[in-house]
Design a protein that fits this description.
This protein is an alpha/beta fold. The protein is built from 8 helices and 7 strands; from the N terminus they run βαβαβαβαβαβαααβ. The structure holds nicotinamide-adenine-dinucleotide.
C-alpha cells in the first residue's frame, strides 16, 4: 500500500517509534529512522522487511538539527510523505519540585519538535497533494495525571497542533492526526514501574498491576504492534477524511 512512499519517524530507535516504522515498512514505505543509541540493529530490522532505511541522529530538542534531518531525508528520498512525530521523554515530579530544565526539555522534545518537523514537511506534501502527519500524543493529551505537568501540557499541545494543522490542510490530500496511547510497556514506562516498585517497596509485577489498575480499565497494555496497525490505517485511503482526530488506543483510560 505504501510502496514508493517515504516515512520519517522521530524517536524510532526503540519502543513505539520503531514498531510504527516497521509497520509502515511492511507496507512498502522506505524509512528514515531517528533517535538516540546505536541505530544499526533497528536499521537492519527495517531493511529486513525489504525497504530502504536511513538514519539521522538529530536531537529533537535542537531546531537546527531537525532542519538538518529534514534536508537529509529529502536528499536521500526526494521528500517525506509520512511524518510520524514520536520522540518523547517523561519526568515525574510535583509542579513545585519540577526541575525547570526538565520542563524545557519535555516541551522541546515532546511538543516543539513536532512543530519544526511539520512546518518543514508540509510544503512538499502540499505540492504532491498527498501526505500524512501522525503525532504520537498520549492519553495525557486528553486527560491529566498528577506529577506530570510538563508531559500533560506538551501532549495537550500536540493535540492542539494536530487540530490546527489539520484545518490548514483540510482541502488537500494531506491529513494530520494524533494517536493517543494508554500504557504501553516500553523503556519509558518500565522506568516508571521500577521507580514505583522501589518507592513503595513492592515487586515490579505488583507495581505493573497497580499502574494498569489505576488508569487502564482493560488491565492490559496497549502493544506497539497495535499502534503500528493504527498508523497504517491512518495512511490508507479509508482514512482520507480522518482529519484532526486524537484517536485513543488506551484500553478505556479516557472513556472513564
Ligand atoms: P522509548 O523511550 O522507548 O522511545 C523514545 C524514543 O525517543 C527513543 O528512540 C529515544 O532515543 C528517542 N528520543 C528521546 N529523546 C530524544 C531526542 N532528544 N531526540 C531524538 N530522539 C529522542 O519510549 P516510547 O514509550 O516508545 O515513547 C514513544 C512516544 O510515545 C513518546 O512520545 C511517548 O510520550 C509516547 N507515549 C508512550 C506511552 C507509553 O506508555 N509507553 C504512552 C503514551 C504515549
Amino acid at each position: 500500500m505504501l510502496k514508493g512512499k517515504t516515512a520519517l519517524v522521530t524517536g524510532s530507535t526503540s519502543g513505539i517509534g520503531l514498531a510504527v516504522a516497521k509497520s509502515l515498512a511492511q507496507q512498502g514505505a522506505n524509512i528514515v529512522l531517528n533517535g538516540f543509541g546505536d541505530a544499526s540493529a533497528p536499521r537492519a530490522e527495517v531493511e529486513a522487511l525489504g525497504v530502504r532505511a536511513e538514519y539521522h541522529g538529530a536531537d529533537m530538542s535542537k531546531p537546527e538539527q531537525i532542519d538538518d534531518m529534514m534536508k537529509f531525508a529529502a536528499s536521500k528520498f526526494g521528500r517525506v510523505d509520512i511524518l510520524v512525530n514520536n520522540a518523547g521523554i517523561q519526568h515525574v515530579a510535583k509542579v513545585e519540585d519540577f526541575p525547570t530544565e526538565r520542563w524545557d526539555a519535555i516541551i522541546a522534545i515532546n511538543l516543539s519538535s513536532a512543530f519544526h518537523t511539520t512546518r518543514l514537511a508540509i510544503p512538499a506534501m502540499r505540492e504532491a497533494n498527498w501526505g500524512r502527519v501522525i503525532n504520537i500524543a498520549s492519553a495525557h493529551g486528553l486527560v491529566a495525571s498528577a506529577q506530570k505537568s510538563a508531559y500533560v501540557a506538551a501532549k495537550h499541545g500536540v493535540v492542539g497542533l494536530t487540530k490546527a494543522v489539520a484545518l490548514e490542510t483540510a482541502t488537500t490530500g494531506v491529513t494530520v492526526n494524533a494517536i493517543c496511547p494508554g500504557w504501553v510497556l516500553t523503556a519509558l514506562v518500565q522506568k516508571q514501574i521500577d521507580d514505583r516498585a522501589a518507592r513503595e517497596g513492592i515487586t515490579a509485577a505488583q507495581a505493573q498491576n497497580d499502574l494498569l489498575g489505576e488508569k487502564q480499565p482493560s488491565l492490559q497494555f496497549t502493544t506497539v504492534e497495535q499502534l503500528g496497525g493504527l498508523a497504517v490505517f491512518l495512511c490508507s485511503p479509508a482514512a482520507d477524511q480522518v482529519r484532526g482526530v486524537a484517536w485513543a488506543m488506551d484500553g478505556g483510560w479516557t472513556a472513564q
